[in-house]
Amino acid sequence: MKRESFFSLDGDWEYAITRSETPPDVYDGVIRVPYSPESVLSGVNRALRKDEFLHYRRIFELPRGFRKRKVLLNVGACDQVCTVFLNSVPVGCHEGGYLPFSFDLTPCLCEGKNELCFTVTDNADSDVYGRGKQRYRRGGIWYTAVSGIWQSVWLESVPEVYTEELRLLPDLDRKTLTIEFKPAVHARAEVFEGTRPISVGEGEGKIELDVSLCKPWTPERPELYVVQFTLGEDRVTTYFGLRKFSLVERGGKRFFALNNEPVFMNGLLDQGYWSGIYTPRPGEMLECLSKVKAAGFNMLRKHLKIEPLVWYYYCDVLGILVWQDMPNGGAQYKQWRINLGPFVDLRLNDADYRSMGRENPLSRAQYMKEAIGTVSALFNCVSVCLYAPFNEGWGQFDAVKVSEILKELDPGRFYDHASGWQDMGGGDVCSKHVYFRKVKLKNDGKRALALTEFGGYAFSERAPKKAFGYKKIGSRAQFEAAISSLFRGEILPLVEREGLCATVYTQLKDVEDEVNGLMTEEGRWKVDPALLKALGEELFAAFSKAQKTIAENGDL
User: Fold this and answer.
1) pLDDT digits (tens, 9 = 90+) for 154-180
2) Right CATH number for 7-158 from 3.40.50.150, 2.60.120.260, 1.20.1270.20, 3.40.350.10?
3) What is the reported pLDDT for 348?
4) Do residues 57 and 116 touch, judged by C-beta distance below 8 A?
């Protein structure tokens, strides 16, 4: 949804933290948006408490010729409940800390200078909103909580009638691209290969384009095509990749397939914590993702956090498949469940809302709102191939039903209904987490077999006082030897004998006290990336050999 009209509001704002909902007369100082006040990069480096209000103020003046008819305010994300005022008039309120939102500022705009204010509250202990790994007292697998604006803020100007929604539906088998849009008035779409137009179509509410000249998108060849979409006076630019995600059955087992061919996904668990806590410094995302791709990984599992849309764009461009977790929530988790999980499959009744920490009906309703909003926000991201509604039973409820609701909204992705040790037998994935013990898995023949968390070996040269990991390693040489032994001794045989078709090593980077990353917090490899690439190539080769064996013998 790129438009020529763009006015960034990132940068210095005034801020204040008070006990009153009323905006202050005098502000505390300057905060650098889009970094949360808890971040050093924000210039504030102070935590917002649950009984406090975070106020933002920014004076702006629209550039000459910018305004057409309407002026829209866009916010990438603001944690957690946010009310926006323009010239002291409320223009909208948003709940939830992870999804983008927009408000129409037009009725309240003045000629010349305008005052834009945000009032934000955040309770990281709330059982209502998704919170991910945030905790007021960090430690182990829980990290520093953030609040306020943590993604970009910008203005754009649009005509009276403009494109409010675009849904791109590529069909690999039919070689078509269907574009659904709102409002359902007459519009025109054109597909380009570079600067050369290769397909054009028109329609009201829906346009179907012939894209037989487009090459399929794969991690090896991430082919993308520009789409110019014109609705009246409104013109937006977007892009798509021609690809298909599906399950295929071979030899009595099911496998992930990309473009109708079985695919092995070699991935890492990515917590999404950066130099600015939730927000990366400029260039940090692309630098990290480029290293991941160069080291032979073709997938990342974005763990319990939603990133700025540009992160998914980089994955589309580089050819990195994305597994997207829904941010977890619910009441505080019972410690005995977390401690027992790695050793015992906890087949608890997830319709028992009280036991699962979802007794509050507002909590369940907000979860569904945020999950549906996530599917909508990421619908056009080419690389997103799987959604995981719940992780390890944290705030889990009605997992089978929830995954079915989401799959009905977006049937073109896989669904790991309950990642870890709270399997209710649904979804597309037999999803296992294994720590502290040898990796042993059995294919159930009904779903794709995936090792969705494992490893977690802890090695750090900086050695924080409260270093956490699943197995402590003393030196880099021992670290590399342990990883080699794990992949070659335990993972490769499962690919060859059980039809394992995806792995997610824990984890990509160190985060605060958790030092089980393959990279440091700053993004430096702690293990030779050439070794990681070699191990990945062995996994891909073993998977190809296993598929050939099935084709020849009917089974592994």
Assistant:
1) 999 999 999 999 999 999 999 999 999
2) 2.60.120.260
3) 87
4) yes
